[in-house]
Amino acid sequence: MKIFLCCLALFIYGYCQAQDCNYTFTGRLIDFHDGSEIAAAAIKIIESNSYVTSDIDGNFKIPNLCEGQLKLRISHIACEDKVVSYDINSNRSETIYMEHHTEELNEVSVTTVVSTMETKTAQETLLKSETLEDYSALSLGDALREVPGVSSINTGNTIVKPMINGMYGSRLLIMNNGVRLQDQEWGVEHAPNIDINAAGQVSVIKGSAALAYGGDAIGGVISVNPVRVILKDSMYGKTILSGQTNGRGFSTSTMLNKTWTEGWFASGQASFKKYGDFEAPDYVLTNTGQEATGFSFRGGKKRFESGFEVYYSYLNNEIGILRSAHVGNASDLVNSINSGEPFFIENFSYDINSPKQDVTHHLFKALYYKRFKSFGKLNLQYDYQINRRLEFDVRRGGRSDRAALDLELQTHTLQANVKLDANSKFRHRFGVLGRYQNNFPNPKTGVRRLIPDYDRYEIGTFFTSEYRINEDVLIDAGIRYDFVNIDAQKFYRTNRWEERGYDQDFSSIVIEDSGTQLLTNPIFNFHSFSASAGLRYEFNDNSYLLGNYSLSTRAPNPAELFSDGLHHSAARYELGDLRLEQEVSNRVSATFSFNNDYFSLNTEVFYNYIDDFMYLEPAGVEEGIRGAFPVWEYKKIDANFYGFDLSANYRISDKWALQNNSSLIKAWDLTTDRAVIDIPAFNTVNQISYRNKVWNNFSASLRSEWVFEQNEFPNNNFETFVATQDKMVVVDISSPPPAYHLMHFRSDMDFRFTEKTNLNIALSINNIFDTNYRNYLNQLRYFADDLGRNVMLQLQLNY
Predict the structure, then answer these.
(1) What is the pLDDT of residue 620?
(2) What are the φ and ψ backbone dihedral angles of 345, each rounded to 5 degrees?
(3) Residue 514 C-beta-side C-alpha neighbours within 13 Å
(4) Spatial separation of the C-alpha atoms in residues 505 and 500, rounded to whole Å
(5) Does 25 lie in the same domain as 171?
(6) Cα separation, 81 vs 304, whole angstroms
(7) What stretches in the chain show pLDDT beneath 70?
(8) Which of 57, 81, 103 is the last residue of a domain?
(9) Given this model, what pLDDT does residue 657 score?
């Protein structure tokens, strides 16, 4: 036996000696982006569980290798781990490119303070997932009011349109997962068609500094992004259920995400809301219910060097409009505006009757990207949107169930952009865009169409550059050009055509004259130039200063040009103006930010001069077969906007904290030397909060919201004849309501079931003292008070 074992040992030794294990593998680690060497990387030889390290030049060596396969795992800070395999049958040398790019790899993290900003020198604020979850039962516009300087212009409480520093509508560019939202944002009562439950983060950029998105964002950009993709095998999600007393309704939302280490990902989300009539402190707001359904899907493959994504979202909103906003004659209109309560007050109901709006929005997106060594990243994207808007009026002859306004807006967009980031100091980005849009107003409504048929063509291109001078100073600049063509066909009543003097200025666009009405073919071409430049100076790790200048040009939208008739869900006649031209904005802003462990301060100031500013203003009253309604006309002026936004947080201790958000905006009509309409008054929000992690992460906060009276406003009051009084009566449509102060409370706790599953229970009370108030920026303030007390219970299961 001993002889056999000795022979076996000699055989094995001889075989090992015969095998050639003298091969050497030499490697060099290079940054994929700029070609620089990567030092101090850990290279693990998986077969032997041993390590080597790259030197200062990125080189490493592995000697004494046998013939066969060599498998390495390479790790470096701020890099994705990379696994590579090589066949060894001789000495071998390889260059290995690492995905070393902190900013790209550290995508938006909505659960920590680490987040990706859209810009470097603009005034920008992030809303993270925790804040968005608090507003699951509400709207995007409600959540955005958490940002200083952001308010909203409302039609009731369910139609909430964001406003940044006094700007709203077409002046705000809203991005949904990289797609510019096209949803007939023209009307005051056209809220963004975005389900807040599908968002993982919202970025608010004040001013037109994000030129890659568009040059017409005079007021700013709102970028809604989904939850980030984590490159590991994982499945996670959340379900939120909310119920509330005001409106006696509920909302539910659920989301599920699945990711794989190889880069594949898929996520689905669905939500549903249903509310009955909301209530003011003293009465029911008849016909103000809401029902909303939404879902979205996102999937694809995400790797550093290339990837693709497909995305689809659907949202349907059926929203009741306050019944008292639609009256029958001038006398009823005057009584409704001048009285202290609505004209119609009925018992609570879940029914949504006319007047109402029913809006459906579909969005589809396909994206492909590819990175190239020592060059940059190419993005190709196509998106398609269809927005169907139905507005129902109170109509005679049993026709209230037949839409009085039926618009279908379809938009196709194709774009490509390139990011050049091979140089660590310079970063450039350029891109091109083509867009086609068609609007079809269904003539079967039997009502004169407010917005006409039109085709819109758009071509745009931009270039931006960023240069880091040193560790403390960064500058950026950019330019953009857009061409817009609008080709419309519109009928005008002959008397309206002549009343507005179009027979003198636009006789050449008449293509058919039937006596009482004219068919016209207005065609407009707009050339828009935009630019921005900014600087960021970091004093130290705790504070920095931003300065930014932006030039932006916005072409008139179809409502501003062509409106001619009753806008049913806004309860008013609206008249556009074919003479409107592009408005040009010059905005200068500065931001100072300080942040340490106990105190943070963010102050922003801005000045914005706008040439040919377009706005909608009341001009009288008009009676028709459907009742008496105020007449609002689109006009243009030169105006300046200026103000400041302040946000301060003080952590008193580990458990107690104070917070203040304050905003002041001034806007002046330089053409007629008076105030601009619909500008938010000074407001300040103060909050004291308590958090105790030991008590199941218990938190409670008390919030004070104080809105001052707007004492600068234009006088647009008018007189109308009231037959019942047999005299002319002044209709006060201008005077803002008085100041008001509201108190709100919120508290929540976490209950952990497993390591990865927990339940959050939250209770909130808005308008604790059931205060009567009217908001100057609520378009239905003429007819009713705002919401009374609302108690909401929310359950969120994370898994």
Answers:
(1) 75
(2) -130, 115
(3) 8
(4) 10
(5) no
(6) 11
(7) 1-19, 78, 100-117, 328-330, 397, 568-571, 623-628
(8) 103
(9) 97
Q: Which residue(s) pair with 751 in the sheet?
A: 759
Q: Are residues 553 and 597 in the same domain?
A: yes
CB atoms under 10 Å from CB of 288, counted, come to 27
- Residue 215 corresponds to which tokens in the numbers above? 């040059």
- Could you tell me if 403 and 470 lie in one domain? yes
Report residue 513: phi and psi, to 5°. Answer: -125, 115
Residues 491 and 421 in one domain: yes
Question: 127-173 pLDDT, tens per residue?
Answer: 988 899 999 999 999 999 999 999 999 998 899 999 999 999 999 99
Whether 609 and 716 map to the same domain: the answer is yes
Token pair belonging to 223: 């970028």
Please give the full DSSP string across 137-161, using - where no structure is assigned. Answer: TS-HHHHHTTSTTEEEEEETTTEEE
**Separation of alpha carbons 721 and 513, rounded Å:** 34
Render pLDDT for 629-662 as a digit per residue (tens, 0 to 9).
778 899 999 999 999 999 999 999 999 999 999 9
Q: Output the CA–CA distances (angstroms, integers) from residue 554 to 182, 371, 439, 693, 749, in the order listed.
A: 15, 34, 20, 49, 47
* Sign of CA pseudo-dihedral 538, 539, 541, 542: negative
Q: Peptide bond preceding 355: is omega within 30 degrees of 0, i.e. cis?
A: yes
Domain that holds residue 177: 107-220
Domain assignment present for 8 = no
Is residue 7 domain-resident? no
Does residue 489 sit in the same domain as residue 546?
A: yes
Tokens encoding 128:
């993270």
The pLDDT assigned to 755 comes to 87
Q: Name residue 194's amino acid.
A: I
- State how far the Cα of 373 lies from the Cα of 353, in Å rounded to an integer: 60
Domain count, the chain: 3
First-to-last alpha carbon distance for the chain, in angstroms, is: 62
